[in-house]
Specification:
Layout lengths: L1 H11 L32 E5 L14 E7 L7 H14 L1 E9 H4 L7 H4 L1 H12 L3 E7 L12 H5 L4 E5 L5 E5 L4 H18 L5 E5 L20 H15 L4 E5 L6 H12 L2 E7 L6 H10 L5 E5 L25 H14 L2 E7 L1 H10 L1 H10 L4 E9 L1 E2 L4 E10 L16 E8 L5 E7 L13 E8 L5 E11 L5 E4 L8 E2 L2 E9 L1
Parallel strand pairs: 2-3, 2-11, 3-4, 4-7, 7-8, 8-9, 9-10, 10-11, 13-21
Antiparallel strand pairs: 1-12, 5-6, 12-14, 14-17, 15-16, 15-18, 18-19, 18-21, 20-21
Helix pairs in contact: 2-5, 7-8, 8-9, 12-13
């Protein structure tokens, strides 16, 4: 607990608000450490300051609390699931993570869940209706599952395989990973899956490995073990060639080894890193250090260890080799999970399914709120230098300074996003119509990390009829028609069609 309090005090120290004064004034020299001092000195411009919104739920791509349907038993029934998770979805969560067997996603060849499974469609609709993006992990192994992870049509097509332990007793059939029939059929599925879900407006990320037990890269079985690296290369490139716009991730630290994971997945194919087992002996200090070494170049999607309950008479964590004898209750577990996530710069963390969500929100509600505040990224334009008068067709300057009060990173630099997010300024007329937009092509939100401001001076030119306008700003998505794409953390923000109003301006 002392460690957590120290970290929270440290984190809060970065949250010095940029001041609430938004009155126009002349700029002055910046005083080091003075958050109210002017960052820019642009002759004739006025200074605008925005205060940081430090508490609101701000949903942005690839960050935030995550709700799960983790179906090693039966998949969730949509109506029951959303009735139970509705409060958490609306108050805290940003992502709904569907972790299903391939046999549920395609029970018969070509009969895809997104086309034919009404329950799957209802689960997705429930998430989207609540403002959540999707994430996916589709695995093929039947270990500890109520049914095989791979659909039966693959076996009938001639794929060779072996037996693994079934949930509740018995055995499930699972294909050898180097079997050509399996690879052909799964390749067909992934390509069809990407056609339906390679949409960053709907999906935040897809796990692009998912072999072995629980889809976590362990206990891999081959007809010929010499094919291990070739199989890893095959599946990583299968996902990478199929998903062009949605982020891909890999649960690192599998038996394939970090050097090969880094070479093939991270470096060659632009994967993000994902890790389960936070707050357990499975998330070692070496792995913590590895995650931190990749920040801020690569985002981290975090997941706690799977315990499956939260009652005080249920303590599966007591057997953990590192923490079992130290913890006295579930509050200690959640405290360590939160500490691991924050100190590792996590973009996401799991509220998971109903039982875990209840544990978090009932036992450690302050930690749930704190991850809303600090998890992922949280951008505020703390200071702007804006002209009061713009001469149409003539060059003018805008200064803009950005802070990130979250611990994570906006993966704008990932090849699948390809620097699509840029700061833009819009001229809005009296009818609330955007009549002109200028983008700062040098701006890059992936460079805005805690403690390092993004400071820019934009050389701009706008052509518009003379008159009175409002100048507004946004972080726009250039791949989506320059629409605002990142929600900002601004206290008492005034918006017009998701553009943040900065000031009045006269065009001559």
């Amino acid at each position: 607990m002392k460690r957590l309090m120290y970290f929270l005090m440290l984190a809060t120290g970065f949250l010095a608000a940029a001041g609430c004064n938004r009155n126009a004034q002349n700029t002055k020299q910046n005083a080091p450490g003075d958050s109210t001092a002017d960052v820019f000195s642009i002759e004739g411009n006025q200074t605008i300051r925005f205060a940081v919104d430090t508490t609101s739920l701000i949903r942005n791509p690839a960050m935030g609390w995550t709700l799960y349907d983790d179906a090693n038993d039966s998949v969730a029934k949509a109506a029951t699931y959303w009735a139970a998770q509705d409060d958490a979805a609306n108050k805290y969560a940003s992502i709904f993570y569907i972790r299903w067997r391939w046999s549920n996603m395609e029970p018969e060849e070509g009969k895809y869940a997104w086309l034919y499974d009404d329950n799957f469609k209802a689960l997705v609709k429930g998430a989207r209706d609540r403002g959540l993006k999707l994430a996916f992990s589709i695995y093929i192994d039947g270990q500890d599952n109520i049914q095989p992870g791979t659909p039966d049509y693959v076996k009938k097509a001639g794929a060779q395989g072996y037996l693994v332990d079934k949930l509740g007793g018995g055995k499930n059939w699972t294909p050898y990973l180097d079997d050509p029939v399996f690879q052909q059929k799964f390749g067909n599925f992934v390509r069809a899956f990407s056609e339906a879900f390679d949409d960053p407006a709907v999906v935040d990320y897809v796990d692009g490995y998912n072999l072995g037990w629980w889809g976590e890269g362990h206990h891999l079985v081959f007809k010929d073990t010499a094919n291990k690296e070739a199989v890893f290369d095959w599946i990583i490139n299968l996902y990478a060639s199929s998903f062009k716009r949605v982020l891909l991730s890999i649960t690192f630290g599998s038996e394939i080894g970090i050097p090969l994971e880094e070479k093939v997945a991270l470096n060659a194919n632009g994967y993000a890193i994902r890790r389960d087992g936070l707050a357990s002996s499975w998330f070692s200090q070496t792995e913590r250090d590895y995650v931190k070494s990749k920040f801020p170049k690569i985002p981290f999607f975090a997941e706690s260890c799977y315990w499956g309950c939260h009652a005080e008479d249920c303590r599966p964590w007591a057997a953990d080799a590192v923490y079992g004898k130290k913890w006295t209750g579930w509050k200690d577990v959640y405290t360590q999970v939160y500490t691991d996530a924050i100190s590792s710069h996590a973009n996401t963390l799991d509220l998971r399914e109903e039982v875990e969500t209840q544990g978090w929100t009932k036992i450690a509600p302050e930690l749930v709120r704190n991850f809303v505040r600090f998890g992922g990224y949280r951008f505020t334009p703390t200071q702007l230098s804006i002209p009061s008068v713009i001469h149409s067709g003539e060059t003018f300057q805008i200064g803009h300074n950005w802070v990130n009060t979250g611990v994570g990173v906006c993966p704008n630099n990932n090849r699948r996003w390809n620097y699509k997010y840029k700061v833009a300024f819009a001229l809005i007329d009296k009818s609330n119509k955007v009549v002109a937009i200028v983008k700062d092509q040098k701006s890059d939100p992936s460079a805005w990390i805690r403690g390092t401001d993004g400071k820019y001076i934009l050389e701009a030119k706008i052509s518009a009829p003379a008159g009175n306008y409002r100048l507004a700003l946004a972080v726009v998505d250039v791949s989506a028609g320059d629409q605002p794409g990142i929600r900002l953390a601004i206290d008492k923000e005034r918006k017009i069609d998701n553009w943040t109003v900065v000031s009045d301006v006269v065009v001559k």
